[in-house]
Amino acid sequence: EAKAEGGDHICFFNPDMLDIIAARAAMENNIRIGINERQFTLFYQPQVNSAGKWIGAEALIRWRHPEKGMISPAEFIPLAEESGLIIPLGNWVIQEACLQLKSWSEHAASAHLTLAVNVSAKQFRQADFVDLVLSALDSSGADPRKLKIELTESVLVDNVEEIIAKMQLLKSHGVCFSLDDFGTGYSSLTYLKKLPLDQLKIDQSFVRDILINPNDAAITRTIIGLGKSLGLAVIAEGVETEAQRTFLQSQDCHAFQGYLFGKPSATLDIPHKTPLAV
Ligand code: C2E
Ligand code: MG
Ligand code: MG
Ligand code: MG
Question: Coiled coil: which residue ranges (predicted)?
Answer without folding.
Answer: none
